[in-house]
Amino acid sequence: MARRRVVVTGIGALTPLGTGCEAFWEACKAGRSGVGYITRFDATAYSCKIGAEVKDFEPERYLSKKEVRKMDRFLHFATVASKLAIEDAKVEITPELGAEFGVIIGSGIGGMGTLEQQHSVLSERGPDKVSPFFIPMMIANMASGTVSIMFNLQGPNLSIVTACATGAHSIGEATQMIRDGRATMMLAGGVEAAITPMAVAGFASMHALSTRNDDPLHASRPFDRDRDGFVMGEGAAVLVLESLDSARARNARIYGEIAGFGMSADAYHITNPQPEGRGAVRAMQKALEDAGASVEDVDYINAHATSTQIGDRTETIAIRSLLGARANQVGVSSTKSMH
User: Fold this and answer.
1) Is 54:15 a contact under the CB 8 Å cutoff?
2) pLDDT digits 0-9 by tens, 243-254
3) Cβ atoms of 191 and 137 closer than 8 Å
4) Does pLDDT of 1 surpass 70?
């Protein structure tokens, strides 16, 4: 059987730059930054006092009060982004389609806010006062699970946890599900809501976060020689993926095609990339092979761009290793500095 082609027909975004893909993209084009001083907790004692928070978000606009109470903030984000993506795709989820519609929405950290809050309850009031919703509010796979229940999506359902690669891996695996005929449509993406006291303290103790507290709007500086670390952000982005045949049959708007994806592991260090970028090169090579493409076909790279000294340097080395003489002709950028 010929491999199914997979296209993007819906986008849902909930970001520090705005809610909805249109608001997000307009902010990106205008070069606006979503970084500011942390307001979700008192960061006075922290070396990093800045973050990219989702602003003016009222989950009650999209969810019932009962649903809001039973969900961590990361679940609010995931469900709303999914709702926006489905609406953007203009797809009617019938019982027949629901059986062929899956979900892969990953989160690197999950319900950290709930974990911290319920630990305080345990410490101060005892085990009998811990919420019965604590576990389902916290565990990362509940992003996919909650979305599945909310929209009656009964196809493949799983959650990927691979730190910064979570969203990309989720899209890649969802693409494979459709290619293999295990689903007709998939919701795929990533979500995070980890601007919490414990999470920020942990990343700060690793010296991974920018301490440019006097200039939040310019703190995240991918590839800049004065970069000093990344900025914690939060939000969610979810795509509706479907087979090309399905999209054509319902006359859907097609944003683009997922032509290929690749994955690798450095097998080197718990935080630092392999200095010569060999793992990143392998992943890009595998993506090109999967797409039946070559380096001559590449005209743009959306970079990981951690804004750390070693991360950006290694990524640059990997890109030059892959592209060779063409490296200076290929555009490279990242929207990470904004969100």
Assistant:
1) yes
2) 999 999 999 999
3) no
4) no
